[in-house]
Amino acid sequence: MGCGRVGARLASLLDEDGHEVTVLDNDTYSFRRLPSSFGGTALFGNGINEEALKKAGIEEADVFVALTQGDNRNVMSCQIAKHIFNVPRVMCRIYDPLREEMYSALGLETISPTKVFAQLLREKLEG
Amino acid sequence: MYIIIVGGGRLGYNLLKALLNEGHEVLLLEKDARICRTIIEEMGSVCYRGDGCEAAILDEVGTGRADMMVAVTGDDEDNLVACQVAKHKHNVPRTIARIRNPQNAALFKKLGIDVTVSTTDLILETIEREVPTHPLTQLMALDEKGLVIVDVKISPESATVGKTVKDLSLPKESKLALVIPNQGNAHVPAANTVLRAGDQIIAVTSPESKEALQIALRGV
Amino acid sequence: MEFKRILVPVVGTEADEEAMKLACRLAKRDKGKVWAVSIVAIKRTLPLDAEIDSEIQNAEDVLDRMERIAEEEDYEAETDVLQAREVGPAIIDEAVERGVDLILMGIKYKRRFGQFNLGNVVPYVLKNAPCPVILYQQ
What we know:
Chain A is an alpha/beta fold and 127 residues long.
């Protein structure tokens, strides 16, 4: 969910690896970021809407990744995926480190790019 | 009570005003500086600029001692997160979220939000209540107990007219509470109470057996 | 100009002491009254009626000093500690309630983010005051 730079890149990498990939975005213009070689499905829809998620095939999905710009949208869609559709693996991008910690404590698999990137820069600079 | 409202739209603004009038300590959180200024100018220091989903902001405004959090922004996801942060990070005993999409009610409940309010559902309920031919109207939901209070009207065509209460095969979660006849006083139904056309029956039931109760009471 | 009822909000700076002196001199001339108030701002994490002993003590110490300054000026001032969520509105409320005809405040030259900055309280008072305001900057 979310076909930004990261979403599009991840989708095409997983597609290259031979997985079946569906990308969901509520702006069809975002799909320009997908390479022409992309063999998966690009679907217009709102990822916090159960109907849209069903249409994207969430009921059969093994993995759900939320990568929109909105932390709250990501959190909500991941919780739908996990608690309503029982997707086995759910990953959530949360920019805000505090929110990320909380949802990680609540059992979501989360990544805070803010935290990771700051840490990475520090290691580069100090190492 | 100390109540925190998230979102200074029309709903949040009016809620703030009403709760202040009732004498509660209320604080409204709003991201938009202009809205904050307007509210502060009108009502004093009862508005704080900040994102109600951010744990740091919630810390600052003393969410830890809040009795209730009401999230009424226009976005379901923001209301969800604000309530979850309040609940899990600050142990707020009661959280209420406004939802735009009625479908989200089940999800929010599952995720621990105490009460959800959907404008769509509210308007629907009102419409149902206003339509007199509707045989069963939900008056109130007791969310914690998983029960609803309903109002069933016995029409002249109902197959149960003339039958006694003990002859009805009510679903087992259902209980008749009150009979309000067309004329005369309301009374608590007994086993030998006879149903008459025009009776209005107030009953408690589970949401799932609403339909079954209606059939039991009206015979159709 | 005649000032018969003067409000001096104080936090205890040197500028406040000078403002207090000035207020006494102005009031003396017109046989007016001077109130020095110190406002304890209560954070949202606490209820408004919380008693933070250290802050109240501090406010009382400041007011004691103000009283002594008034005595040195051979004048008498009334003092009060107020609790509020925010200082600016508390000053305005007090000014309205006491029906003062002057607010006299001492301010310090402050920088914030490298720029001259008046803070929140002074602009709020200037904007909302029901009476003339004199600022004394040291």
